[in-house]
Amino acid sequence: MITIYHNPDCATSRNTLAMIRNSGNEPQIIEYLKTPPRRAELVVLLRLMGLTPRQLLREKGTPYQELGLGDPARTDDELIDAMMAHPILINRPIVIAPLGAKLCRPSEEVLDILPSSQRGAFTKEDGERVVDSNGMRLI
To answer: Catalytic positions, please?
Structure first.
């Protein structure tokens, strides 16, 4: 089973989802802005990915600055509280797969944790080739 915490408005998230599907897998898709993870679930995701809350924070297009989240004195609990109150602060996409869990930025990071190889060529929305016609990773 593969799960993606997805934002359909994000090109990186869309590319990641497409690479999962190009491997022959249909993931469970959680649109995390509509269905945010519970606090305990977010803590588990952080542990699985080996990230700190600060490493998962998204700055661009979020209330990061307004909330003063760049202050190094902010505790992990305060950062998680902010993510719970404002799910847009959670960076994406997060993928949980049989071979691990990752924040897939850039999107080709997902290739490291998929249980199946790519079934064919894959090109990102911006035209960058990631996988050749034999399913071999290019970057």
So the answer is: 10
